[in-house]
Amino acid sequence: MTDKTSPADSLICAPITEARAADFLAALDEAQRIADAIELRLDYLNDEDRARVLAELPARLAGVTKPLIFTFRPREQGGRRDLSLADRQTFWRSLPQALISAMAYADFELDLVASLVASSPIPWKKVICSYHNFDETPANLAEIRDRIARTPAAVIKITTQATRITDCLRIFELLEGSPKPIIALAMGVPGLATRVLALSRGALLTFGALRRGAESASGQPTVAELRDRYHVKQLSRASEIFGVIGDSVGHSRSPLMHNAAFAALGRDAVYLPFEVKDVGEFVRDFVRPATRKIDWRLRGLSVTIPHKLAIMPQLDVIDPTAQRIGAVNTVVVEGNELRGYNTDVIGAMKPLDELIAVRDARVAVLGAGGAARAVCYGLSERSAQVTIYARDLVKAQRLADEFKAQAAQLEDFDSGAEVVINCTPLGMQGRSVEASAAKSEQLGGVKLVYDLVYNPIETVLLKEARAAGCQTLGGLAMLVAQAAEQFRLWTGEEAPTELMWQAVSPPGF
Length: 509
Ligand code: NAP
What we know:
Bound molecules: NADP nicotinamide-adenine-dinucleotide phosphate
Strand order of the largest sheet: 7-6-5-4-3-2-1-8
């Protein structure tokens, strides 16, 4: 074990990845303001710009109080320049003494370390020995770590590509048994947990980009995300872990809402996106207390597409509403038991109930997928008169039969309903943002139009509805309400919904 266990001395390190000398130096100033350590990626600069940066650096050092790591990486190991071993040796040997004195660390790749063992230009106590694998997280990681540990370098660094979430386990294992201070991270979206939890599990540092687009590796969050969203420096092994499992989860808004809520209530907890392909494997290795291969306090999960059905056979107890809907979107880990719930019904219905009484009302549900199912369940509990309109009449009829509703073709939709609820993705960013499930002329006489789509907030359907004089309700209300109910199930506390709302709303809403 390393002796570096206190979160207080753990670092968020910002790599400087600018390609022009002036930008590089400006980024250094910015990193000095917002990061705890700074990595100078000198391989991002061409010969001329690098010479300029190195010439100007000594004069700048007085203003740099954060530890500096110097890196000069060859392309085949993730760097930006074609560099022979001789080029790299020459670079390190020609570095002025003032810079060597000023640096906290120099990052030497494993092959460079081997070539300099007898005569390193940098004192070994300042050397990080690094290994990178951009294709996979190999099986023999512990062997690689031990090989690096036998070099004279002071710090071990291992960075691999996560191709699936289970790769995180092997990275966490490296942190456990390390004989020297270590940096161990998995790249890519499935590896995010290794970056967020690195400091709490004993890593020397974790990397955060200065801004989006300035990442030095795939899956690297920004400094602001690590510090302000995930609160990585406050986390410890005792912190509660929550997260969303899905494929993909990179754009999920749930981490914004739940992390803001945990912080507001002063709870020692973090909520992570987990990109999961195989639910059974994830539950066995990460979730179920009796079988999980990681020592952590995982307390609950949100479950999203495509795992809402696949999670069900993995659970010990399923709430009757979730059972009836046939989908679980929330897992609570209670002792040794995994319990499944569905908060989509309450999420969809609560904002609607606050605006209108749907009992006996004529309601048109557009779409016949998972969200429509939750809505139909909620409406049937309230004895609404429901017609389901879908482009596939067979699917509409199947859902209608289950909930004693009517079915019709989406193209035949016309007014006559008091409430219209869009449960199709029509109008969604990235898919069909210009589309609308209904036009204003189809909405005459409708009291309320509820669009479950929340991105964008102002959908074409909501504009059409206002043009027809209808009251409107957007999908953000459901997003927040279903998350608030998850929060309550996990913690037993009321969620700070106003704050969760702010966390997912663009400025001005
Ligand atoms: P889903 O299970 O895939 O169902 C989508 C439904 O929309 C299906 O009936 C589908 O018909 C239909 N559809 C898809 N593309 C269409 C098109 N171009 N024209 C007409 N109908 C189309 O998805 P879901 O989980 O129900 O989610 C539906 C939407 O609800 C999402 O896109 C999301 O925007 C929104 N949603 C919001 C929240 C929230 O918290 N606000 C929560 C869940 C969902 P086929 O079966 O024929 O493909």
